[in-house]
User: Which sequence fits this backbone?
C-alpha cells in the first residue's frame, strides 16, 4: 500500500504515463523515483547519471534513485508485462511493424535498461500513429520558437523536452532562490509550470479517467 501522502507531481505526461505502472510500487518514494527517472531519460542531459538527474528533478542527492534501481522491491518482469499490455491496448489489433534493436540485448534484464525502454514508449505514445483519440487542435506550445512540427520520434522528443523545461529549470535554479529569495521569480516559475501542466494534452484518456492536478507544494 502507498503512504498517505500523494506522489509529488512532475510533468503531466510523465505523471499520466507512469500512473499505468503505479500498482507495481509498494511505497510512494519508489513511485516518485520511477517518475523522476523517466524525466531524466528524456531530458537534454548529455550524461544521464543519477546525480545529474537528481538535480533536474529537485532532489538533494541521488541516493533515492540509486536505492530504487538496486534495492527497491519492484519486479522487472511485471513492469515489462504491463508495458506490453499497454502497447496492445493502444494498438487495439492494428498491424504494426516491429523493429528489433539488437544493441539492447547486452543490457536486457537490468532495471536501468527497463526504465529506458519504458521512457522510449512514453515518447512513442505521442505519435499520431499511436494516439487513437481525436486530433487535438494546434497547441499554444507550437508558438515556442524551439517547437518542431515534424512527425518523427526525434521531433516528438524535442517537443517533450521543451514541455519539461519549466519543471527541470526551476529545480536547477531553486537552490539560488533559497540563498536570494525573489518571490516574483518563484511565483512566475510556479505559474509557468501550472500553465504547461494544465495545457498538456492527455496521451491515453481512453484507458482510464484520471484527474491530475498541478500543485507546487
Assistant:
Amino acid at each position: 500500500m502507498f503512504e498517505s501522502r500523494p506522489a509529488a507531481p512532475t510533468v503531466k505526461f510523465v505523471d499520466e504515463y507512469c500512473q499505468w505502472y503505479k500498482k507495481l510500487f509498494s511505497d510512494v518514494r519508489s513511485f516518485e523515483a520511477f517518475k523522476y527517472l523517466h524525466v531524466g531519460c528524456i531530458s537534454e542531459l548529455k550524461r544521464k547519471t543519477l546525480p545529474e538527474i537528481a538535480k533536474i528533478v529537485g532532489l538533494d542527492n541521488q541516493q533515492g534513485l540509486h536505492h530504487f534501481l538496486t534495492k527497491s522491491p519492484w519486479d522487472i518482469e511485471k513492469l515489462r508485462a504491463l508495458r506490453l499490455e499497454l502497447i496492445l491496448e493502444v494498438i487495439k489489433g492494428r498491424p504494426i511493424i516491429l523493429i528489433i534493436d539488437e544493441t539492447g540485448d547486452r543490457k536486457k534484464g537490468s532495471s536501468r535498461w527497463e526504465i529506458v525502454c519504458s521512457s522510449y514508449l512514453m515518447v512513442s505514445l505521442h505519435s499520431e500513429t499511436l494516439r487513437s483519440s481525436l486530433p487535438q487542435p494546434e497547441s499554444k506550445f507550437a508558438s515556442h520558437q524551439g517547437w518542431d512540427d515534424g512527425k518523427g520520434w526525434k521531433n516528438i522528443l524535442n517537443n517533450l523536452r521543451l514541455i519539461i523545461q519549466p519543471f527541470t529549470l526551476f529545480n536547477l535554479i531553486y537552490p539560488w532562490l533559497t540563498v536570494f529569495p525573489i518571490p516574483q521569480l518563484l511565483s512566475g516559475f510556479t505559474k509557468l509550470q501550472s500553465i504547461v501542466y494544465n495545457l498538456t494534452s492527455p496521451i491515453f484518456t481512453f484507458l482510464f479517467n484520471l484527474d491530475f492536478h498541478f500543485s507546487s507544494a
User: Anything to note?
Assistant: Confidence is low (pLDDT under 50) at residues 103-109, 208-217. The helical segments are 12-19, 28-42, 50-56, 63-70, 76-91, 111-124, 153-179, 183-199. The chain is about 50% helix and 0% strand.
